[in-house]
Every structure is written in structure tokens, then in C-alpha cells.
Amino acid sequence: MTSHSYIRKLAAESTPLYRYDQNEDFYSWQKRAKQKLEELLGLPFKKPENDNFKLGKSYSKDGFDFVPFTFESEDGYEVPVCMVKKSDLNKKSPICICLQGHSSGMHISLGEAIYEGDEKTIAGGRDFALRAAREGMVALAIEQRYMGKCGFGDRAVPACCASVDYSDGNQAMPALLMGRTPIGERVWDVSRTIDIVIKYLADEADVSRIICLGNSGGGTATFYSACMDERIDVAVPSCAVCTFDASIMAMNHCPCNFIPGIRKYFDMGDLGALVAPRRLVVVCGKQDPIFPLDGVNISFDLIKKAYAATDVEANCSLVVGSGGHQFYPDDAWPVIHKFVGEI
Questions:
Q1: Model confidence over 290-299: pLDDT tens digits?
Q2: 10 Å Cβ neighbour count for 121?
Q3: Is the peptide bond preceding residue 277 cis, with omega within 30 degrees of 0?
Q4: b vs e for 203-216, b when ≥16 Cβ sit within 10 Å of the residue's Cβ?
Q5: Helix (H) or strand (E) run with residue 74 in it
Q6: Are 179 and 112 within 8 A, CB to CB?
């Protein structure tokens, strides 16, 4: 038996220590589990004394208005964001935070091709912000840590990717040496973005209704952000929610997916219970090779049981697209609109 096989055997024979067993009050369990997840993610970080919120030069294109801005999520760390909405939008609409997966950067969410291969990525339904704006939302594209401008800055590959061999190494992994995690850092930036929107952009959008969505690595950040931040009303993680045993542990994945010790305490279905009773739309691809459907179904069954324990089983939904590892906007958006309308 190889070392890898042995670890997978240990996982297969173990039940996560924080699995909800129905004998404990659900909300007491949820509070305890959230505190444990916060610890595993390496959170919280320290907020800066000054947000250093800066608006960039706005522009309009093809019936949409784009408003770039930056702020500091931690002292000295700047987060680039771009707000996009229909130019003729005449009402305060819900916010949709859009998180790109492992790609060349947040410009993909804006439907802007910069590097070779971007057009193919965009065609996979990953122009999240543009589609959200088209659906009547005020969309926010966030540059995630170790990607795009927050990664190498001038290269199409993310600085946290396991599939690329580059001489300056994986830039995300040193966070682990500091007791942090790349996912925790991305979750922090999402929460700080919500702080900024509420503080500076409340006149532009309906800050009482916040959606967060993303695919692949962006779906992972969406999922954990919704677990931690109760201001997210509707979470739409795509091609990300699956058992650890069938996905992250089973094959080569970007190292930024790894949270030390997490499988000992939780599987992803257990974590999905932290979103209840808020709305959760799990999106997956029937033929996704790295987040297999069987593992998705096992995770979603656990999530449904948790939602049933709070009498809100209707607040979670599974959307299965017909293809592979991509977003399925035409399948997902009707469900998103239904849930947003219920808030």
C-alpha cells in the first residue's frame, strides 16, 4: 500500500468529528462548528485602521457601466474590484459578488480577454459579473489572492496553481507557515468587500441582499465565505462542493484547496450546514472529472439533512449541468432569482 493509499484508507474509515448527529441543538452545533472552521482557516485577521478606499476611472461599454476601485483588506494589502451594472439600471439592485476560479484574473468575470486562452475560459460560462449585471444585479468582480493582479500580475497562470512549473515557486503555500490558509485569505477579502460596499456604495446597490457565486476555485471561496459570513444571503458555489475523499484527496489539485486538518473535523457536506438557513445553490457538472458527481450527491445529501433539521429544506438546491468543469448560468440563474425574490 502506498503512502497516499494509506491516507485515503484512514479517511474512508473515519467520520468527521464535527458531523451533526441530530442529538445536539442545531444552532448550538452550528456555532461550535463555525468557531472550529474559523480556527482551521487561520481567521480572523486584523482589519486596517484605514480602508484606503479609492475609486478608479469609470467607463461604459456595450450598455454596461464599469467602476473599478481598490481598498485594503489588511494593513498594506490592496484588493482590486470592479463594479459593473447595466447603464440604464434605475433602481437599487442586489449585490452579486463574483469569484473567478483558477484563471488569468478577474477580467474573465468581466468578459474581457487579455491573454491567450481567455476566450475559451469565458465561453465556459465564466463571465460571471457580466452575466450577473445582465440579470439585473450590481455585480462585483474581485481579484482573488494569488491570481491575476494579485498573483504574478503579468502572466496568465495563477500563482497558486499546481499544474504549472515555475521557478519562483507556489506563492500561496508560505501562508501555511504563518498559520494562515489561502482559502482563509480569500474568505477574508470577500468579507472585507462586503464591509466596503456597505460603507461606501450603499447608494449604488441594495446591500440588504447579497449573492456570492463562483466556479472551481472561485466556487470554493464562495462556499467557505458563505460558511463564515452570514451577510451572504444566497451562495452559489459551482464545481467545488464534493466529498474531500472523492475530489481533493483523490487527485492532483491546486495546493490552495488544502486546509490543514480539515478532513479530521469536517467533510464538505458537513460544512454546507453552516450556511443554513440561508439559501445555497450547489452547481456541478455531470461529467466534471475533478469534482465527481457521486461525491457531489453525497455532500448534498448531508446538506439537505441539515436544512431539514431547521425546517428549511427548500432553501438548498442542487443544479446539475450536462457537461464538465464549468459554470451553467442558464440552469443556475432561474434558481438564484427565485431565492433572491424570497429574501
A1: 999 999 999 9
A2: 21
A3: yes
A4: ebbbbebbbbbbbb
A5: strand 64-74
A6: no
Q: What are phi and psi of 239, to 5 degrees?
A: 50, 50
Neighbours of 289 (CB within 10 A): 10
Q: Tens digits of per-residue pLDDT, 18-61? A: 999 888 999 999 999 999 999 999 999 999 999 999 999 999 99
Asked if residues 214 and 329 have their Cβ atoms less than 8 Å apart, the reply is no
Element (H, E) at 54: strand 54-55
C-alpha span between 148 and 191 (Å, rounded):
20
**Which residue in this structure is represented by grid cell 464562495?**
222
Contact by Cβ (8 Å): 81, 94: no
pLDDT digits (tens, 9 = 90+) for 217-270: 999 999 999 999 999 999 999 999 999 999 999 888 888 889 999 999 999 999
This prediction has a pTM of: 0.95
CA–CA separation, 121 and 116 (whole Å): 10
Mean pLDDT of 274-289: 97
Diameter of the chain by CA atoms? Answer: 63
